[in-house]
Each structure stands twice: as structure tokens, then as C-alpha cells.
């Protein structure tokens, strides 16, 4: 996941919003590679509610962070994170749950920045060593 966060950090440093950060757009290599940079749409379960009206001009760095939260959930649990009908017997561990909740806040201005998201991951990594 850190490879993807670092890739998105690089895209954002160039002023690029990906708009469709989903599992199928992450190539399994070392390091992981983000693809499909020309996408003009987003997978519905991986974008924030402000995009639901189809106005893709609303995509922002914050919407990419939202998608990263959804991607984290999908990586950990292999299911659509925003399908409220799916109930898990075992909730995600607190550090990951906290990241998911932070990234998927309803208001874009409440999402962490990509730099803050990287720091959240670094904290988890450091606490496990």
C-alpha cells in the first residue's frame, strides 16, 4: 500500500488527480505500479458522495485519498468497503479502521492529505518494529 501512496503523492505533486484508484488499476510488481491515468470516470464504490451526481469536475486530491481508503479496505477484506449490507464478524484492526474512517469521511475537506495519510501508515509501520 505504501507504494501506491507514494505513487499518488508523486501524481499529486504534478497536479494530477487519478480519479479511479481501484484494485484493477494497480499492477502487481515490485514496486506496485498505478495505471489507467487517462480515466475520465470512477468506479462507483471508490469515490466520495460529492461525485455521485456525475459531475467529474469535482474530483480532487481529496477524492483520490477517499479512494485510497476504500482500496485499503478492499486489500484487507476482499470486498466492497462501502456496501453497507456487508457485515464483518471481525472488524479491521484499529490502526487500519482509523485510516479507513479518516479517508472516507463524507466531506472532502475532512479527508487527510496524502502527506498526512503517509504519516499515518508510517506510524503503524514504526509501531510494529
TrEMBL record:
Pfam families: PK_Tyr_Ser-Thr. Keywords: ATP-binding, Kinase, Nucleotide-binding, Transferase. The keyword Kinase applies. One of its GO terms (molecular function) is protein kinase activity. Transmembrane segments: none annotated. SUPFAM superfamilies: Protein kinase-like (PK-like). Residues 1-129 form the Protein kinase domain. This is Kinase-like domain-containing protein. It comes from Gymnopilus junonius (Spectacular rustgill mushroom).
Amino acid at each position: 500500500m505504501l507504494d501506491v501512496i507514494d505513487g499518488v503523492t508523486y501524481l499529486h505533486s504534478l497536479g494530477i488527480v487519478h480519479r479511479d484508484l481501484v484494485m484493477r488499476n494497480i499492477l502487481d510488481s515490485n514496486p506496485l505500479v498505478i495505471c489507467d491515468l487517462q480515466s475520465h470516470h470512477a468506479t462507483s464504490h471508490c469515490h466520495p458522495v460529492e461525485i455521485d451526481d456525475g459531475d467529474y469536475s469535482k474530483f480532487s486530491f481529496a477524492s483520490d485519498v477517499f479512494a485510497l481508503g476504500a482500496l485499503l479496505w478492499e486489500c484487507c477484506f476482499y470486498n466492497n468497503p462501502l456496501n453497507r449490507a456487508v457485515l464483518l464478524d471481525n472488524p479491521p484492526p484499529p490502526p487500519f479502521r482509523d485510516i479507513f474512517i479518516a479517508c472516507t469521511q463524507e466531506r472532502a475537506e475532512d479527508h487527510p492529505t496524502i502527506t498526512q495519510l503517509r504519516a499515518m501508515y508510517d506510524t503503524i509501520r514504526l509501531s510494529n518494529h
